[in-house]
Each structure stands twice: as structure tokens, then as C-alpha cells.
């Protein structure tokens, strides 16, 4: 039980750390959001009227207070779910703006993450079982190469081939705009063609980390004494690979699940930007370029908390699957 | 000096022999060498100055312009060749800084244990939790002197050390309690001596794998940031080439070379690093060695 209590304690501590980091980063090196929004309204060259600046600042509620006071306000706001007003989408609140973007990203990341894990682990097991064959070296070498292709580049190539040249799928956006986003079958049918290319851009490299990881872990575990003993006992190759090799090798892949989420989210940001997909990644870039502090802070928080929760789940799962982890912690 | 004393020096060191015998690592090293030569000899190899924009815009590939020209009239081939410099320099420097941070944090935490470990591990896990790219984007938008290569290097290295630090800590934890380490400690060797003389040699391949991985990660991160238009869009790099290809609509006009060339170069360079790492892995893990 100590293992799980420790994980949860750790989760709460990192949650606090992430929230604080999130508060500090945007403020560390100054920059004035009110100034930025006025420049945006007035155009780059125009001079900004100080009175107008003060008015915008009061309107947007930029606090003119010491940092510690801002921090306390911030913690209180986070706790009550009050994330402020977006500068870019004024007068909409940050929660409303993010609320519209989050489902897009969750579906995109969720579908590609699970599919990548399953496909990668299965292929990795298969390749390790057949290790040393031509199939193994071709697949390992190909995936090592394909895995190095940048997400955004794959996205550009897919747009060029399937959207521009062949015209099969739309090159950008998330839905046709003929109807409002809603969780209905009609809207899903409308948005579906827009989902295929972004998801494909992530899925082409997504499984590779798990494939190679699984292969290496399995090659290693099949070289261990227990596997050698199994072979000496006359177990079939298939049983050896699945019940002995894969069972041990899958554990590091489970911990990799949560960590890979961070990388996948990075990929999603690039892919969303390239496809102009209406998710949180594109929104983040928009918020950064507009110096939209409240929006940016909250997107960060959402991403960090999402990864933290996934980490906790993987840690707990790992403890359940591997008794050694629990015992080591207790000792 | 006798001939006998000279002979061992004349032979390639053992690590090189193992690397060279590994077909993937050999391929990776040769490819990497090609990129290093491309970067060093860029002014000789490139047909034009990469900042020379005296050509007509959007020319198709021809003998004079192997991959055509950009919308603004730069020679694509020359930009691609000079782009190797940006990727290699930023990759090596950011990779070295990230590796140094991970060594310091990981080894200190793993060896000292206790409260120091708790604090450092917390910092490591926190850095792991915050997804790197969104963090880089924000940092880059706020770090003063936005757009310089140094800013990009700093942003990449302070977001890219955590994974390697965690691995090094884990490795040192398993090494710390081996009999020979305990023997060294009981024999009265100091902490410094134990870490660097007894433990570090057993971690060499992990450190090298981590460094090469960090270089590859930094190269990818630089390209990603440049593609997003973060940093200086006037830098000549493969990422900015793709950024401009995307912004000035090269896809719509069918200038496929502007898309393919920088992307493939990026992928080939990262592949070279990955393949070298296959060989370095085999150094420490005889299971992975090729017969």
C-alpha cells in the first residue's frame, strides 16, 4: 500500500509544481500583454496611447500587484476554475475558448495514442519473435528511418499528396463549417474526413517507439536465464516468446505509455498547426503569438495535468502488474 | 620507444572495432561523416551563396538550380547545404548542455540518495511532466533576445535533460550497491573517486547513447521550432526552409523539391545518429552485438 500512497503523494506534489511553474514561466521575462493587444489592434507601426493602454489593462484585469499577491490570486483562481478572460477572444472566458478546443485534441491524442501503443507493441513482439530474419531487419531499419521523419514534415507531405494533388481529403480545418460542432452523429460524419490526415500524420511515426522498445526488451528478456531454462525445458518458440519474453518486456512499455504522451502532445501541436486543426495545440501557438497570458497559462495547465494523471495511472498500473516494484518501495 | 610499445596504439581502439563491426553503426558513422563534411565544406560544395537572392523566384529544378529556387529567389540546394551547419551546431551544443545537466542531476541524485535525491528527482519528474514542445514554445516566446540561435539552444537544452537524468539515476542506483563499489567504499575511496573512477566507466555507453540521443532530439526540436516560425526566420536551416515553403504556398504551386529536400536531410541526419546508437548499445550489451 505504501507504494500507492507514495505515488499519490508524488502526484499531488508535482501537480503543485506544475501549477507554480506554469505561473512563473510567462512572467519571468516581462512583456506587456496590454501593450501587445493594442499593437495588434492598431497595427505594428502605430504609437500606443498611454490612456488607451491603461483602459485596456483595467478592462482585461491585468493585476498591477506584487508577484506574491498575483500568485495567491492565481492559486485561488485555479482552485475555483476561474481562468480569466482571453485577450484574443475577448469577451469570451478562457474556459469557454479552451472548452471548444479540448475535445478535438483529446480525440486526436486519445485515438492515436492507443492505436500506436497496441500496434507498436504487437509488431515489436512479432519482430522480436522472428528476430534475425530478413523481415526483422527490414522492419527495424525501416522504422528506425521513418521514426526520424519530423511530424510536421509528414503532415506537409500528406497535405501535398492527398489533399492538393489527389484532392481526396480536405487540406486544413476540423469541420466543414456548415454546422455547429456538437456531439451528434451528423457532425461526426461531417468532421471525419478532416480527422483522417492529422491522425495519419501522427500514426505514421507513433507506433515506432513502442515497436523498437518492445523488440529490444524482448530480445533482452529472451536472453535471460529463465528464458534459457524455458527453452531447455522444450517449450515451443511461440510460448516462449509470448509467455516468457513479451510478458516481461511489456512492463517498460507500460511506463513508456505515459511518458510518450508528452512527445505525442508535442507532435499534436505541430500537426494541429500544420493542418489548422481547431485543437489546443494550435490555440496554444495562437495564444503565445498574441501574448494571451490567461489562455496560454491555462492550456499549459491542462496539458501538464493531463500528462500527470496519465503518469499516475501508469505508475499504479505498473505497481499492480509488477510486484517487485511494490516490494522495492516498501523495503 | 620500442615497436612493441607502439603497436597497441596503431590499432583502432576496441570500442571502435565493435562499432565498426556492427553494420548499422558503420552505416550511421559513414552517413554522419558525410553530413559533417557537407557542413564543413558548405562554401565549396554549394553552387551559390545561400543569401544570394538575385535569381528569379519559384524556378523549377534545372542544371543551374538543382532543386529550383524559393519564392523569394534563393537557391534551394545552397540553402539546404548550408542548413546542415545550423542543424549540426545547434544539435551538438544543445545536446552537450542537456547531457551535462542530466549527468550532474542524475548522478548526484542517484549516488547521494536521501533528501538530495528526493529534491532532484522531483525536479526531474517535474521537467519530464511538462511536455517539451509546448514548454519550448512558451519559453522561446518570452526569453529575451528572442530569435537568436543561443535562445533556441538554451530553450532546447533546458527542456531536454530530464529523461536522460532519470535513466542515469536509475543506472547508478543499480551500480551503487554492487560488491565492487562497496569494496571500494570500504577501502576508503572518496565519493568523487567512487563516482568517476568506479561507477562512471560502467556508464560510458549510457552517457554516449544519451548524448547522441540528445543531439538528435535537439536537431528535431530546432527544426520544429523553426517550422512554427519561432526563432529567427532568416536563419538558414532546414526548419526555416520548410517554414517558408509552407508560408509562401510552395505546396500549392507544386514546388515539391522545397518540401522533400530539407525533410529528407533532417531524417537522414537523425537516422545516422540513431544507427550509431545501435552500435553504442551493443558496446555495453553483448546480447545486441552482431555475430
Question: What does the secondary structure layout of this molecule look like, with pairings?
Answer:
The complex is a heterodimer of chains A (331) and B (291).
Chain A: H1 2-28, H2 33-42, H3 50-60, H4 67-80, H5 94-129, H6 134-146, H7 151-165, H8 185-203, H9 208-221, H10 225-232, H11 237-275, H12 280-289, H13 293-321, H14 323-330
Helix pairs in contact in A: 1-13, 2-3, 5-8, 5-9, 5-11, 5-13, 7-8, 7-11, 8-11, 9-11, 10-11, 11-12, 11-13, 12-13, 13-14
Chain B: H1 3-10, H2 14-21, H3 23-40, H4 42-45, H5 76-112, H6 114-129, H7 132-142, H8 149-159, H9 162-176, H10 179-186, H11 191-227, H12 238-247, H13 256-284
Helix pairs in contact in B: 2-13, 3-5, 3-13, 5-6, 5-8, 5-9, 5-11, 5-13, 6-9, 7-8, 8-11, 9-11, 10-11, 11-12, 11-13, 12-13
What does this structure look like?
The complex is a heterodimer of chains A (331) and B (291). By secondary structure, chain A is mostly helical. Chain A contains 14 helices and no strands. Chain A has helices at 2-28, 33-42, 50-60, 67-80, 94-129, 134-146, 151-165, 185-203, 208-221, 225-232, 237-275, 280-289, 293-321, 323-330. In chain A, helix 9 (208-221) runs antiparallel to helix 11. Chain A is globular. The relative contact order of chain A is 0.14. Chain B is mainly α. Helices cover 73% and strands 0% of the residues of chain B. Chain B contains 13 helices and no strands. In chain B, helix 3 packs across helix 5. The longest helix of chain B has 37 residues, at 76-112. Chain B is elongated, with a radius of gyration of 23 Å. The model of chain B is unreliable at 1-9 (pLDDT under 50). At the A-B interface, helix 1, helix 6, helix 7, helix 9 and helix 11 of A face helix 6, helix 7, helix 11, helix 12 and helix 13 of B.
Amino acid at each position: 500500500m505504501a507504494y500507492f500512497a507514495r505515488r499519490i503523494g508524488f502526484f499531488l506534489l508535482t501537480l503543485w509544481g506544475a501549477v507554480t511553474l506554469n505561473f512563473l514561466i510567462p512572467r519571468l521575462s516581462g512583456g506587456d500583454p496590454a501593450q501587445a493587444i493594442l499593437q495588434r489592434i492598431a497595427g505594428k507601426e502605430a504609437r500606443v496611447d498611454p490612456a488607451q493602454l491603461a483602459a485596456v489593462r483595467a478592462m482585461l484585469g491585468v493585476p498591477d500587484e506584487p508577484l506574491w499577491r498575483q500568485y495567491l490570486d492565481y492559486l485561488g483562481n485555479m482552485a475555483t476554475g476561474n481562468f480569466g478572460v482571453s485577450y484574443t477572444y475577448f469577451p469570451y472566458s478562457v474556459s469557454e475558448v479552451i472548452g471548444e478546443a479540448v475535445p478535438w485534441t483529446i480525440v486526436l491524442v486519445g485515438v492515436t495514442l492507443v492505436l500506436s501503443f497496441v500496434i507498436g507493441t504487437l509488431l515489436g513482439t512479432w519482430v522480436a519473435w522472428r528476430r534475425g530474419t530478413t523481415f526483422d531487419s527490414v522492419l527495424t531499419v525501416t522504422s528506425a528511418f521513418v521514426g526520424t521523419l519530423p511530424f510536421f514534415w509528414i503532415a506537409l507531405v500528406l497535405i501535398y499528396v492527398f489533399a492538393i494533388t489527389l484532392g481526396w481529403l480536405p487540406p486544413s480545418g476540423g469541420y466543414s463549417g456548415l454546422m455547429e460542432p456538437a456531439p451528434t452523429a451528423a457532425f461526426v460524419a461531417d468532421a471525419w474526413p478532416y480527422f483522417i490526415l492529422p491522425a495519419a500524420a501522427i500514426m505514421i511515426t507513433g507506433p515506432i517507439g513502442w515497436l523498437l522498445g518492445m523488440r529490444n526488451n524482448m530480445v533482452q528478456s529472451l536472453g535471460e536465464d529463465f528464458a534459457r531454462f524455458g527453452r531447455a525445458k522444450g517449450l515451443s518458440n511461440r510460448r516462449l516468446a509470448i509467455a516468457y519474453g513479451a510478458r516481461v518486456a511489456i512492463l517498460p512499455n507500460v511506463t513508456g505509455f505515459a511518458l510518450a504522451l508528452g512527445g505525442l502532445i508535442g507532435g499534436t501541436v505541430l500537426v494541429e498547426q500544420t493542418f489548422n486543426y481547431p485543437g489546443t495545440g494550435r490555440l496554444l501557438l495562437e495564444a503565445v503569438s498574441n501574448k494571451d497570458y490567461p489562455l496560454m497559462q491555462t492550456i499549459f495547465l491542462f496539458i501538464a495535468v493531463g500528462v500527470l494523471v496519465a503518469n499516475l495511472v501508469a505508475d499504479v498500473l505498473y505497481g499492480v502488474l509488477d510486484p517487485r516494484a511494490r516490494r522495492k518501495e516498501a523495503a | 620507444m620500442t615497436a612493441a610499445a607502439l603497436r597497441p596504439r596503431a590499432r583502432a581502439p576496441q570500442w571502435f572495432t565493435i562499432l565498426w563491426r556492427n553494420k548499422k553503426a558503420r552505416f550511421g558513422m559513414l552517413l554522419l561523416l558525410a553530413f559533417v563534411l557537407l557542413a564543413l565544406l558548405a562554401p565549396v560544395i554549394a553552387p551559390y551563396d545561400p543569401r544570394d537572392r538575385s535569381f528569379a523566384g519559384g524556378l523549377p529544378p534545372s542544371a543551374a538550380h538543382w532543386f529550383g529556387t524559393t519564392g523569394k529567389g534563393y537557391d534551394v540546394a545552397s540553402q539546404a547545404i548550408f542548413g546542415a551547419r545550423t542543424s549540426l551546431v545547434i544539435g551538438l551544443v544543445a545536446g552537450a548542455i542537456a547531457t551535462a545537466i542530466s549527468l550532474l542531476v542524475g548522478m548526484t541524485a542517484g549516488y547521494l540518495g536521501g533528501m538530495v535525491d528526493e529534491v532532484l528527482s522531483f525536479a526531474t519528474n517535474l521537467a519530464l511532466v511538462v511536455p517539451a514542445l509546448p514548454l519550448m514554445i512558451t519559453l522561446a516566446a518570452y526569453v529575451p533576445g528572442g530569435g537568436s540561435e543561443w535562445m533556441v539552444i538554451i530553450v532546447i537544452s533546458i527542456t531536454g535533460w530530464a529523461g536522460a537524468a532519470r535513466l542515469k539515476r536509475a543506472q547508478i542506483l543499480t551500480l551503487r550497491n554492487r560488491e565492487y563499489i562497496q569494496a571500494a567504499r570500504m577501502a576508503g575511496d572518496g565519493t568523487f573517486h567512487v563516482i568517476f573512477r568506479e561507477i562512471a566507466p560502467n556508464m560510458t555507453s549510457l552517457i554516449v547513447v544519451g548524448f547522441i540521443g540528445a543531439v538528435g532530439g535537439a536537431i528535431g526540436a530546432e527544426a520544429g521550432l523553426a517550422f512554427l516560425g519561432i526563432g529567427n526566420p532568416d536563419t538558414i536551416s532546414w526548419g526555416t526552409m520548410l517554414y517558408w515553403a509552407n508560408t509562401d504556398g510552395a505546396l500549392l504551386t507544386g514546388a515539391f523539391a522545397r518540401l522533400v529536400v530539407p525533410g529528407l536531410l533532417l531524417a537522414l541526419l537523425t537516422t545516422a545518429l540513431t544507427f550509431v546508437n545501435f552500435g553504442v548499445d551493443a558496446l555495453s550489451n553483448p546480447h545486441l552485438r552482431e555475430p
